[in-house]
Amino acid sequence: MSEPIRTCIACGLKKPKGELIRTAASLDGEGRGAYVCISAACAERALKRKMFARPLRVGEDAIDWVRLERELMEKVNLTNA
């Protein structure tokens, strides 16, 4: 069985779920998720343009942008190390 395909919110590329980083609005990672390529460029673009609110279906004020940036960049750095 093949892996589900997801779309990067920053660049729009469709990739297997395992090739993307998933973020969620909740601290426990449950609920709706948004996917970003494992690249600093896509992560930075999505953060700079605040592209997470729409796919997560929450308001921009509901997102802890500092926490999200820290966790996303940690995942990018760990994966690319």
List the helices and strands and how they pair.
Blueprint: E1 5-7, E2 14-16, E3 20-24, E4 33-37, H1 40-48, H2 53-56, H3 65-80
Helix pairs in contact: 1-3
Brief overview:
The chain has 81 residues and is an alpha+beta fold.
Characterise the protein shown here:
The protein is an alpha+beta fold and 81 residues long. It has a single domain, classed as YlxR-like (Hypothetical Cytosolic Protein, Chain: A, 2-Layer Sandwich). 36% of the residues lie in helices and 20% in strands. It is built from three helices and four strands, in the order E-E-E-E-H-H-H. The strands form two sheets. It has a two-stranded antiparallel sheet with strand order 1-2. The chain has a two-stranded antiparallel sheet with strand order 3-4. A hairpin with an 8-residue loop joins strand 3 and strand 4. Helix 1 runs antiparallel to helix 3. The longest helix is centred in the C-terminal third of the chain and has 16 residues. The N and C termini lie far apart (29 Å). The model has no long low-confidence stretch (mean pLDDT 92).
Continuous helix count: 3
Largest beta sheet: strand ordering: 1-2
Strand segment count:
4
Largest sheet descriptor:
2 strands, antiparallel
Going by helix content, strand content and strand pairing, the class is alpha+beta
Mean pLDDT: 92
Q: How much of the residues is beta strand, in percent? A: 15-25%
Uncertain segments are: none
Which outline best applies?
globular
Domain module count: 1
Can you name the CATH architecture? 2-Layer Sandwich
CATH domain class: Alpha Beta
CATH level 4 superfamily = YlxR-like
Q: For the terminal residues, how far apart are their CA atoms?
A: 29 Å
Q: What radius of gyration results from the CA coordinates?
A: 12 Å
SSE string, helix = H, strand = E?
Answer: EEEEHHH
In helices, the fraction of residues equals: 25-40%
Q: Under CATH, the topology is which?
A: Hypothetical Cytosolic Protein, Chain: A
